[in-house]
């Protein structure tokens, strides 16, 4: 059973999400909060697996709440809910530790699929969507590449795979591009995560843009 916690300052929105989540046989809502501060307080004493986190809220916004949740012993996965006009918030939330993000007008089936994907360990809701949104809010990205000594530890193939992950390609697409098996691609990604100390694929996308390995299209 996937335990879901809802964070949104609109009660009607939370009610809608509750009905959707509780309608599924493999997930249920275990708690709710109307702002980030309340969310951090409740989640610290409520066992949950996935948090649906709104960004713009009173008292404590979703970005800071996401950041604080990462310090918990059993930190839940956070999916940030945002809109196109909150570009800087979405990027900041991923930097703060969010496993992914969705637009608020995401179809219900896609939201449920995202919850399951994140819970299973695939932190990227959609590689291609991540890429498009990062390019959309390119203004939030650094102007110049950031040097990271750990990148020197990557093999030539690992570096190539990292670039394609940052460009938004799926494991299947990367495997086809380099004539590899998907299992081999997964192994490469696992090693890249270990060498860079990053938590998931979303963080690799951010790394690719931050270091200048991939440039946003104008």
UniProtKB/TrEMBL annotation:
Pfam families for this protein: GerE (PF00196), Response_reg (PF00072)
Gene Ontology MF, one: DNA binding
Modified residues annotated as 4-aspartylphosphate in this record: 54
Gene3D superfamilies: 3.40.50.2300
Record flagged with keyword DNA-binding: yes
Keyword Transferase: no
InterPro entries linked to this entry: CheY-like_superfamily, NreC/VraR/RcsB-like_REC, Sig_transdc_resp-reg_C-effctor, Sig_transdc_resp-reg_receiver, Tscrpt_reg_LuxR_C, WalR-like
Domain annotation HTH luxR-type: ranges: 147-212
GO terms classed as biological process: phosphorelay signal transduction system; regulation of DNA-templated transcription
Keywords: DNA-binding, Phosphoprotein, Transcription, Transcription regulation
Domain Response regulatory intervals: 3-119
Source domain of life: Bacteria
Name of the protein this chain belongs to: Response regulator transcription factor
Biological source species: Kribbella albertanoniae
């Amino acid at each position: 059973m996937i335990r879901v916690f809802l964070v949104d300052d609109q009660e009607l929105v939370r009610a809608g999400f509750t009905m959707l989540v509780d309608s599924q046989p493999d997930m249920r809502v275990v708690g709710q909060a109307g702002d980030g501060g309340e969310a951090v307080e409740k989640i610290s004493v409520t066992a949950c697996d996935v948090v649906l986190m709104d960004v713009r809220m009173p008292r404590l916004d979703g970005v800071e709440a996401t950041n604080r949740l990462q310090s918990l012993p059993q930190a839940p996965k956070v999916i940030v809910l945002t809109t196109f006009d909150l570009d800087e918030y979405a990027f900041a939330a991923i930097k703060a530790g969010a496993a992914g993000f969705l637009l608020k007008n995401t179809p219900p089936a896609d939201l449920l699929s995202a919850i399951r994907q994140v819970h299973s360990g695939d932190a990227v809701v959609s590689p291609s969507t991540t890429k498009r949104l990062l390019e959309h809010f390119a203004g939030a990205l650094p102007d110049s590449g950031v040097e990271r000594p750990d990148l020197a530890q990557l093999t030539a193939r690992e570096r190539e795979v990292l670039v394609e992950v940052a460009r938004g390609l799926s494991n299947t697409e990367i495997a086809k591009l380099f004539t590899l098996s998907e299992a081999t691609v997964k192994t490469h990604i696992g090693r890249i995560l270990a060498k860079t100390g990053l938590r998931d694929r979303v963080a690799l996308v951010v790394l690719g843009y931050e270091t200048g390995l991939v440039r946003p299209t104008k």
